[in-house]
TrEMBL record, chains A, B:
Protein name: 3-dehydroquinate synthase
Domain 3-dehydroquinate synthase C-terminal: 190-339
GO MF term (any one): 3-dehydroquinate synthase activity
Similarity comment: family membership: Belongs to the sugar phosphate cyclases superfamily. Dehydroquinate synthase family.
Classification via CDD domains: DHQS
Function: Catalyzes the conversion of 3-deoxy-D-arabino-heptulosonate 7-phosphate (DAHP) to dehydroquinate (DHQ).
Amino acids binding Zn(2+): E193, H255, H274
Pfam families found in the cross-reference section: DHQ_synthase (PF01761), DHQS_C (PF24621)
Reactions performed catalytically: 7-phospho-2-dehydro-3-deoxy-D-arabino-heptonate = 3-dehydroquinate + phosphate
InterPro entries for the chain: Dehydroquinate_synthase (IPR050071), DHQ_synth_AroB (IPR016037), DHQ_synth_fam (IPR030963), DHQS/DOIS_N (IPR030960), DHQS_C (IPR056179)
Amino acid sequence: MTVQSRSPERLVHVPLGDRAYDILIGPGLLARAGGEITSRLKGRKAAIITDEHVAPLYLEALMDGLQTDGIEAVSLTLPAGEKTKSFDHLATVCDMVLAARIERNDAVIALGGGVIGDLAGFAAGIVRRGVRFVQIPTSLLSQVDSSVGGKTGVNSRHGKNLLGVFHQPDLVLADTSILDTLSPREFRAGYAEVAKYGLIDNPAFFEWLEKNWQKVFEGGPERIEAIAVSCQSKADVVVEDEREMGRRALLNLGHTFGHALEAATQYDSKRLVHGEGVAIGMVLAHEFSARLNLASPDDAKRVEEHLKAVGLPTKMSDIPGELPGADVLLDAIMQDKKVKGGKLTFILTRGIGQSFVADDVPSSEVLSFLKEKLAK
Amino acid sequence: MTVQSRSPERLVHVPLGDRAYDILIGPGLLARAGGEITSRLKGRKAAIITDEHVAPLYLEALMDGLQTDGIEAVSLTLPAGEKTKSFDHLATVCDMVLAARIERNDAVIALGGGVIGDLAGFAAGIVRRGVRFVQIPTSLLSQVDSSVGGKTGVNSRHGKNLLGVFHQPDLVLADTSILDTLSPREFRAGYAEVAKYGLIDNPAFFEWLEKNWQKVFEGGPERIEAIAVSCQSKADVVVEDEREMGRRALLNLGHTFGHALEAATQYDSKRLVHGEGVAIGMVLAHEFSARLNLASPDDAKRVEEHLKAVGLPTKMSDIPGELPGADVLLDAIMQDKKVKGGKLTFILTRGIGQSFVADDVPSSEVLSFLKEKLAK
C-alpha cells in the first residue's frame, strides 16, 4: 500500500442502490458543506444536531457555509457525552426537527462524534418515517466507523445501542482538519477502530499501520489514507450485508468484550471511552481465540504491542478503578444484541486479518477466560 | 365479483422479497396463532402488546394458544385510545420488550386495533434495530388497513403519525370472528376504508359493496371476501411502492381532510374516530375534485349516498360540537407529511375508482373550498 500523491481529498462511494451515497475525506470540507449538500439533495432546509463541545468550534462556520448556498438551517446543541444517547434526547431532537418543518427531502445534519451521529441519525430515520441525513463526523472514531453504514441508535437501561434503526446517510463529510483539535486520548481511541480494519481481513493494512502510525497521528496524507482505507473497508462490508445478517458482524471485532467493559464502567468516559474498550476487547478477542486453539498467542501479543505503542490500554487492569466480577461481565455480554437463541456470538480470529463470526461460543468458556484475565 | 364457496379462510401473500409475508383471513385464527407463528418464525419468545378493551376479551385465549405451541409469552396492556400512540408509550413498550429479552427472531405481537398495531410495530422496528412482528388486528379498520404494509408510528404534538418507521410484519392474522364484538360504530368506521379500495381503482368492488354491504355487516362469506379484497388491494399497492414514493399515496384518499378533522377535534373519539374522518374526507375529496372540474358532482353524490346508507358521517356538520375555521384546518393540512417543498399533495379523482395523486394543489383553492363547506 502506498500513499498517493494526487489531490489530498478522497471519495469513497457506497453503492447501496437507491440508498447509495458518497463519503468525502479531506481537509476543509466543513466550509464547503453547503455546496456538497445542494449538489446532492433537493431540500433547502436543515436541522443541525451538535453538542456543547463541538458547537463553539464549528457550528458557526457550518451555519455560514450552509447559508451561503441557500440552505435555511436551525441548530440544537446537546450536552456532550454518552448519556446524551438516550430515548429522552431522541424525543427532544425529533420535536426540534418537526418544529423546524423538515420535510422528507430536507436534511438532519449530525455535527459531532458518534453519540451525535447515532442520535441524529435515529431521529432522521423516524421523523416522517425517514428524512435525509448528512453526517459531519468530528472525531476520528466517527469518521472511520459510526458515520458510515447507517446504524443509528440510543442506549437503554438494558444496554448499549438496544434501540435504533438502519438509516443510511445521504452524504458523509469527513473533514480531516477538524481532527487537529482532538485530544491525544480521543485520537487514540478512534485509532483503535482504524487498526480493527487491518485485524478483520487486511493484514497488509495492519502492517502498514505498524510502520506508519506516527504519521497518521501527525496528520498529512497518511492520515487521509488511513481514514479512506477504513471507510472503504467499512463500506465494502456494509454493501455486502447492510442489515447485519452475517458478515457485517465482523465489524464488531473487539466490541462484545468492549461493550461489556463500557457497561461495567457505567459509560464513564473518565475511566473508559468506546475506542479504548474496543482496543482492550480486540486484544481479549485474540487472546480468547488463542485459548480456544484457533490462533497463535503470538498474534495476540503483536496486537497488544501495537496498540500499546500508540498509547492505548490493552488489558482490563489498565482501566482505572474497580471492575465487577466475571459473572457480571458475562451477563452484560449475554444481554448484548449479538446473542441469538441463547447462544453466544463472538468475533474470533485465526490470526492477524483472519477474523470470523463464531455463533456457538459456550458461555462457560467465556466465563472461565474472563475469570483468568481478571485474576491477573 | 362472486363470493367463493370453498373453505371460508383466505390467504393473501405480500411478495416483498426477504420481507414477504402472509395475511390469513377467517374465523377462529386467534386460537391457532401459536401454530401459525411457529411454522413461520424461528424464535420461541413473544411480547404481546394490547389494550384494556381488547385484553379482557382475547388476551387469555391468545396466551393459552401460544403456550400450547411452546411460545413463552409476556404481555403489556395499555390504555385504549389514540392518546396511547405517543412517544412516552413507545418508550414503555420498548422497555418491556427489552426486559423480556426478545431477540431478533422473537416476536412482538400486536393484539388490538390500529393504535396498538402502529405502536407495537414501531417498537418492533426499533428494538435491536428490528425484531419480528406479528399483527393480530381486532378491528375491521386495522384488518383492512393498518395491519398490512409496514407503516408504523406515533403521534407528535406537531401532528399525527409524524414519527415512525417502515417495518413490515412477518405475519398478519385477521380473525374475522373477533369482529362480532365490535360496536356498530366501530365496524362502520372500518368499513369506510373498505369502501376506499373501491374508490381508489376498483369501481366493480364499489358497486359490489353498494349491493352487498348489509351482508358484510352481518358477517359470513361476504365479510371475509370484502376483507380479502381490501387486503389484496393494499398489498398490491405496497408491493409496488413500499416506502410511499408515489403510488402508495393513493391509500391516503380521504385522509388529508380526514387527518385535519381528527386534529381539529383533538382526536376525541367521542366526536370523531379515524374511519369517520376518512368517510367525510372521501366525500370532500370527491366534491373538491368536482369543484376543480376533474370529476362529475354525481360521483361525489354517489359516494355520499353509499356512506350515509351504511350510517357513516359524510359532511363536516355531522361532527358533534364546534369546528375551527378553514384557516386552522388548512394549517393542519400543511403540517401533514404529504406536503412536499411547500406544495400541497392531495389524492383527487376523475370519478368512482379513478383516483390519482395531485402534487400541485394551490392552498388558496383548498382554503376557499373549506370555507364554502363550513359555511353550509
